[in-house]
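Give me a protein, keeping tokens residue-aligned:
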Amino acid sequence: MYCNYVFQFYFSKMTIDFYYMNVSAPCRAVLLAAKALGIDLNLKHLSKGEHLSPEFIKMNPQHTVPTLVDNGFVLWESRAIMAYLVSQYGKDDSLYPKDPKQRAVVDQRLYFDMGTLYARYADYYYPVYLHSGSFEPAKLERIKEAFNFLNVFLENQEFAAGNNLTIADFALIATVSNFEISGFDISPYPNVLSWYNKVKTTAPGYEEVNGKNALLFKQMMEKLMKNK
């Protein structure tokens, strides 16, 4: 009883500032993790160009979002932020296991999301959305290859790193939802599709945090395309 009181008191007093953009998939991943942990972040939504201000660059020299400030401790890169939040504030380690082998699998999935899946999304779609590029068939094949990898990872298991929800699922579903709203067909990858639907109904606050904001991202990209 006393421990619960102390825990609740501590959480009520802490201030964790979260600099983000709601259309950003990495930002949405962190928001999903915070929801799952029951953490109320002090949200600081950035408008265009605010991340380039001298104040922000002093705080984060890479001037990237998301950026988290926990009582003076500054951290950026969404996957590192999620791992930190679980390690610092998680009631248990289910979202980011302490067991070395289990954690290694979660890390592998996080690196796969960053270095392969999300990277190939950006490589294929952003030159078209943000510049005057065109969709390149060879890059689309690389996306299909990445989805085949993910489909294999998900064989005989419910979630990205096993049979429990972890921060790897938050990172991956934020990315996969970007593919879906961009028109990529997920149906040829049955394990991915099953996992996608399961996480959408399992992750706390999914629709509020990721579903609605992914649609905002879609609207923003469509507007950019029309204004070219």
